[in-house]
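Milestone M4 deliverable, item 7.
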Amino acid sequence: MIKKLVNKEQKLAVIGLGYVGLPVALSMAKKIAVIGFDISADRVALMQQGIDPSKELDKEDFEGCDITFTNSLDVLREATFFIVAVPTPVYANNAPDLTAVKKASETVGKVLKKGDYVVFESTVYPGCTEEDCLPVIEKISGLKMGVDFKLGYSPERINPGDKQHTLHNVVKVVSGCDEESLNVIADVYCLVVEAGVHKAASIKVAEASKIIENTQRDMNIALMNELSQIFDRVGINTYEVLEAAGTKWNFLKFSPGLVGGHCIGVDPYYLTYKANDLGYTSRLINAARFINDGMAKYVGEKAVQHIIANCEKVKEAKVLVLGSTFKEDVSDIRNSKVADIINHIKSHFINVDVADPHADSHELMEEYGYELSTNFSTDYDVVIVAVAHKDYIKKDAAYYTSITKPHGLIIDLKGILRNKISSRAYWSL
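Output delivered:
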């Protein structure tokens, strides 16, 4: 198969062209013929013009690519190697939402032919690919895995906003339903992954490896967040403590903060869900999730307490929140915990303005029920630097002083203004 792909006698398809799928599709398209499939006609139209709807890639990234963007099943049928890269979020109760990945499995089932390959990149719990997705594919296609087609899993490692760790220079974990498929899948990814691949022992092992990558980070950040709350009560700055502790050679570098987005704040729930299904209740992972999910309220409460202590009329108080995406210098608002801060403050009938140079106001309204503000004041009672965008790092202390009242509080979640604010009250995690 690899020879036919390289000679462009066969085509590879990527299903789902978001933050994960589009970079994979474009990278592959510089080497082989690719079909980029997405169910959204509007997104397809943008990509046909060389525009990334996620605002991660530049127009130049589309150049020199042999790729056809489509939402047509007839076009998708031309492919023989399918990569599925659709979102796997959680429901409001934190149970895995497999809607997109199952719909994608249905799509694959409709176009699958004998001899084809299917590889999932979507983050799932161990066993999901074979136990939840495979039955859908086999039922609709009428084909049997291992006999008529091959199945594999290769967890995505795309990090939005990160131009250093890319698909090309990060080792790719690959797995297959048998040794033959493992080798073919590895060869396909080696076309674009210069760092090479790691061949996992099984599909379940590959699925589990992705889950624990982010679960590990979640737990380490939870420790920092709990330490931050303890040190706040002690009356010392967490970042100063971390700097001192960091002088030891084996101290791991983590910092406190909000844990949102589509990976770290979501993936652990897939693992705990699977554990519960198997009769095991995870204590440590659930504790980390509890701490991190509670940080937005903790921050919001700091703002409310300051206003109650310093403002005669609470309902006339004003708060400015700088940043609303889930991380710095990206436009991605999925699972942004900044929304929880805003909602907590608003629940006390306090006025909140929101600014963000990267977020889309319409998307914020649809997802969280608030828009970016257009008219800003110079007399805020609290300013919360919620996301460490470069735009906010560049601003000096005079700027933050100029937009707050004399009794104003600057809340700096990532410590970017530490030791810079002197004429206003200052607090950081």
